[in-house]
Amino acid sequence: MTMDIRLARIDSRLLHGQVATVWTKSVTPNRILVVSDTVAKDNLRKTLITQAAPPGVKANVITLDKMIQINKDPRFDVFKAIILTETPADMLKLAEGGVDFSQVGIDVGSIAFSDGMTMLNDSIAVDNDMAAQLRKLHDDFNLDVYAQKVPADKKQDMMELLSKKGF
């Protein structure tokens, strides 16, 4: 057995209202794992994230290497987890490290816009590197990579969104 991953989501906001309320009701996790080397070093952000967890669900902030380690450890098979990363690069590193997302695919919730990026829809912006990383998750790992803000929304195929914008 391995950890039961209920949702794998790329979201530059990490753990926020939509995830803490709507997604946890939908996928019923007992653990939210925020996987980020950057956040793991930032005590303030770590504290805020762990406090944002909804009742009955524990949140942890861990590094990418730690996630790859615990994914292979049978002691963590009891986790029914939501996995959150800030970037496509981090999610790709997890897949390359052997974390199996084949049952759930990769949900791209929100990626904040900054200079040099292209908006794919109203909440997701990417640059060339991010587009390539999302394609790699789809092509090399045969994953369903989709955009879905909340469970009630229809899934949008990320490959179609990327193609429409010339990526």
UniProtKB/TrEMBL annotation:
GO terms for molecular function: kinase activity; protein-N(PI)-phosphohistidine-sugar phosphotransferase activity. GO terms for biological process: phosphoenolpyruvate-dependent sugar phosphotransferase system. SUPFAM superfamilies: PTS IIb component. InterPro entries: PTS_IIB_sorbose-sp, PTS_IIB_sorbose-sp_sf. Residues 1-167 form the PTS EIIB type-4 domain. It comes from the Bacteria. GO terms for cellular component: cytoplasm. Coiled coil: none annotated. It is found in: Cytoplasm. Keywords: Cytoplasm, Kinase, Phosphotransferase system, Sugar transport, Transferase, Transport. This is Protein-N(Pi)-phosphohistidine--sugar phosphotransferase. It comes from Lentilactobacillus senioris DSM 24302 = JCM 17472.
